[in-house]
């Protein structure tokens, strides 16, 4: 078992620090499952919004003629892609809140219970 | 300057002072001063975030850019909305759970190193001052144009107002000033959008047709403003990563009771600010049609008066009651916008000076609560005075470089530090020093030798250097960390901060 966490310097640190075995909490199986679940769900969402936005910026910079193609009257592909980017950003954010509240939060509560009945705070 | 404009301006100032008086009576502890007692609801924090995030650059700038340069204005506007995806997915909850009052708290929890804490605070102060000074300078120009006050008087007025709000009312006053501003802004946005759409039979595509017909097909193309393609990509990176390095935005997540409220508040800001940003494309094209780019440039060469002029036109035109009322309303909001943003920036800077450097780095955290609040108030006074002096000195200087510098430093210095502190086990104090030194020096150097500062004589081709300086900042952090032998304490504190960030155990309440 790891030694209890003690600050290397006499800096004020937030509550819990000196009394808790954070390493044991970190190794808790449910907590590790929470980290894995978050990584597996969040990573594709990060890729989606980041890549689509960088792709939009790259198109604007390197292929403005594609952005300039007209769709409805003088409304161009570029403006529609900008609108789509708004939609993706809103969609990703709403999706995240739903996943966080239906999947992450219950597992988090379970991990906290598991941590608090384990070596943490002993 | 019409009497209606002065009355509306006066009403906004009076309202904000009443808020400050109310907040001051409720601001006694550091938790109340820096984090509004962590008592805000998701909608309150979301509105305040919207008030903070829709700065004058967004409120007036995006409309002006669209009116003068077409699509580049809309491309500029979408970035700040997408940036909140980074915040909600990766940082809002960990910051709320593991932090206390400042970005430096994350580094303090992770490193327990005074050097790392001071370096982080320096990054925060540079970003905030780089933002504050252009806001002050912009306030001077705007108030001079709208109310006829001399530049120096206008800057000093904004300086005194922000010091009063923040020193007396802390985060609570700052928050409610931002909320009031956001509500006024959204109200004005709905009214102006309704009038814009009504003018074209509620068919927004008509503005695109009119723009192409009146200003030629080139007007609606990308690249009229940012001519170097790499600048478009670099700007995109600045937004989606730089937001995490903006302390006045990130510290707003400390004002809510838990991580769930933090994430919900992001939804509020994304829909409120996002809807407004979309509308700026219509405002800009409508201004280009009704006012015309040449007349907009005559009023302000950067296009910042496009929206007030459009509001005046839609209200009935110059020297009409309706025109004066809409111009007065939008002008009052413009001033409220600046006050709300500078208040947030001043509070975040004061946190870095008083909480990070004085209380934690110098005194090791051993400072009585009342003294901490007093020091925080004194630091607000000092930061406000410095920003006012710099704002007055910046008259006539091209301050655009400072905005770019602020974003670049945020993405190249503060972002690598916060991201790696939360997600990279090997980061240590050497890495923080490496990120701050390399990110800061790289950003400052490239911004100063770039086109924003040197114009056609630029030695470096990009206006926005983030595409180079952000990887450099990460490289500095990684090399700096590897140059220092791994500290077992840093290893353990990575596990501590990870548990804190993802569970909320030990979170400040």
Please sum up the structure shown:
By secondary structure, chain A is mostly helical. Chain A contains four helices and two strands.
| Largest interface (C-beta under 8 Å) | A-B, 65 and 79 residues
Note the overall shape of chain A. Answer: elongated
N-to-C SSE string of chain B, H for helix and E for strand: HHHHHHHHHHHHHHHHHHHHH
> N- to C-terminal separation of chain B?
48 Å
| Strand arrangement, major sheet of chain A | 1-2
Oligomer: heterodimer
Number of strands of chain B: 0
Query: What form of chain B results from the Cα inertia axes?
Result: globular
Describe, in plain words, how this protein is organized in 3D.
The complex is a heterodimer of chains A (122) and B (509). Chain A has 122 residues and is mainly alpha-helical. Helices cover 70% and strands 4% of the residues of chain A. In chain A, strands 1-2 form a two-stranded antiparallel sheet. The longest helix of chain A is centred in the C-terminal third of the chain and has 41 residues, at 77-117. Chain B is mainly α. Chain B has 21 helices and no strands. In chain B, helix 4 packs antiparallel against helix 5 (71-98), helix 6 packs parallel to helix 17 and helix 10 (229-242) packs across helix 17 (400-423). The chains are: A mainly alpha (122), B mainly alpha (509). At the A-B interface, helix 1, helix 2, strand 2 and helix 4 of A face helix 5, helix 6, helix 9, helix 10 and helix 12 of B.
SSE diagram, text form:
The complex is a heterodimer of chains A (122) and B (509).
Chain A: H1 22-27, H2 29-62, H3 64-67, E1 70-72, E2 75-76, H4 77-117
Antiparallel strand pairs in A: 1-2
Helix pairs in contact in A: 2-4
Chain B: H1 3-24, H2 30-35, H3 42-53, H4 56-69, H5 71-98, H6 104-111, H7 114-147, H8 151-199, H9 205-215, H10 229-242, H11 247-250, H12 259-290, H13 293-299, H14 306-315, H15 321-362, H16 369-393, H17 400-423, H18 429-448, H19 451-454, H20 466-483, H21 488-503
Helix pairs in contact in B: 1-8, 1-15, 3-8, 3-12, 4-5, 4-12, 5-10, 5-12, 5-21, 6-7, 6-17, 6-21, 7-8, 7-15, 7-16, 7-17, 7-18, 8-12, 8-15, 8-16, 9-12, 10-17, 10-20, 12-14, 14-15, 15-16, 17-18, 17-20, 18-20
């Amino acid at each position: 078992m790891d030694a209890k966490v003690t600050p290397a310097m006499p800096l004020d640190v937030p509550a819990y620090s000196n009394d808790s075995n954070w390493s044991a909490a970190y190794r808790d199986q449910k907590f590790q499952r929470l980290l894995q679940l978050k990584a597996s769900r969040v990573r594709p969402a990060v890729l989606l919004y980041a890549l689509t936005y960088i792709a939009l910026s790259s198109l604007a910079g390197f292929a403005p003629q594609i952005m300039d193609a007209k769709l409805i009257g003088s409304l161009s592909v570029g403006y529609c892609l900008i609108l789509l980017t708004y939609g993706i950003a809103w969609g990703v954010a709403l999706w995240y809140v739903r996943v966080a509240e239906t999947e992450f939060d219950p597992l988090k509560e379970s991990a906290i219970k598991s941590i608090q009945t384990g070596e943490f705070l002993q | 300057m019409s009497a209606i404009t002065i009355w509306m301006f006066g009403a906004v100032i009076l309202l904000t002072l009443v808020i400050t008086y109310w907040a001051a009576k409720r601001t006694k502890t550091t938790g109340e001063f820096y984090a509004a007692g962590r008592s805000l609801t998701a909608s309150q924090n979301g509105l305040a975030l919207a008030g903070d995030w829709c700065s004058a650059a967004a409120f007036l700038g995006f409309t002006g850019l669209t009116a003068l340069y077409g699509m580049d204005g809309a491309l500029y506007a979408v970035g700040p909305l997408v940036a909140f995806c980074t915040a909600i997915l990766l940082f809002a909850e960990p910051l709320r759970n593991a932090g206390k009052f400042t970005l430096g708290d994350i580094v303090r929890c992770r490193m327990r190193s005074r050097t790392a804490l001071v370096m982080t605070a320096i990054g925060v102060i540079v970003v905030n001052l780089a933002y504050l000074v252009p806001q002050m300078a912009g306030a001077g120009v705007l108030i001079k144009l709208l109310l006829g006050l001399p530049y120096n008087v206008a800057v000093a007025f904004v300086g005194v107002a922000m010091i009063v709000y923040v020193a007396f009312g802390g985060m609570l006053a700052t928050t409610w000033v931002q909320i009031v501003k956001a509500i006024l802004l959204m109200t004005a946005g709905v009214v102006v959008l309704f009038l814009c759409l009504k003018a074209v039979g509620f068919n927004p595509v008509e503005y695109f047709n009119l723009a192409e017909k009146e200003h030629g097909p080139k007007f609606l193309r990308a690249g009229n403003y940012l001519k170097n393609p790499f600048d478009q990509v670099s700007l995109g990176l600045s937004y989606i990563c730089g937001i995490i390095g903006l302390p006045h935005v990130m510290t707003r997540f400390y004002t809510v009771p838990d991580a769930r409220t933090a994430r919900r508040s992001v939804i509020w800001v994304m829909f409120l600010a996002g809807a407004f940003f979309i509308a700026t494309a219509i405002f800009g094209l409508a201004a280009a049609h009704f006012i015309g780019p040449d007349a907009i440039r005559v009023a302000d060469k950067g296009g910042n008066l496009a929206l007030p002029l459009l509001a005046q036109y839609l209200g009935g035109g110059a020297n009409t009651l309706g025109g004066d009322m809409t111009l007065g309303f939008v002008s009052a909001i413009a001033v409220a916008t600046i006050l709300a943003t500078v208040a947030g920036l001043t509070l975040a800077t004061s946190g870095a000076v008083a909480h990070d450097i004085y209380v934690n780095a110098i005194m090791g955290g051993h400072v009585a609560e009342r003294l901490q609040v007093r020091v925080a108030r004194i630091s607000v006074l000092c930061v406000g005075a410095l920003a006012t002096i710099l704002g007055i000195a910046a008259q006539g200087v091209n301050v655009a470089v400072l905005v770019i510098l602020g974003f670049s430093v945020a993405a190249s210095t503060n972002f690598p530090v916060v991201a790696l502190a939360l997600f990279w086990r090997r980061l240590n104090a050497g890495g923080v020093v490496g990120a701050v030194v390399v990110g800061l020096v790289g950003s400052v150097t490239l911004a100063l030798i770039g086109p924003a500062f040197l114009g056609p004589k630029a030695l470096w081709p990009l206006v926005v250097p983030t595409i180079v300086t952000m990887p450099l900042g990460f490289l500095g952090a990684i090399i700096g960390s590897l140059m220092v032998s791994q500290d077992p304490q840093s290893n353990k504190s990575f596990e501590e901060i990870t548990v804190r960030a993802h569970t909320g155990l030990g979170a400040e309440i």
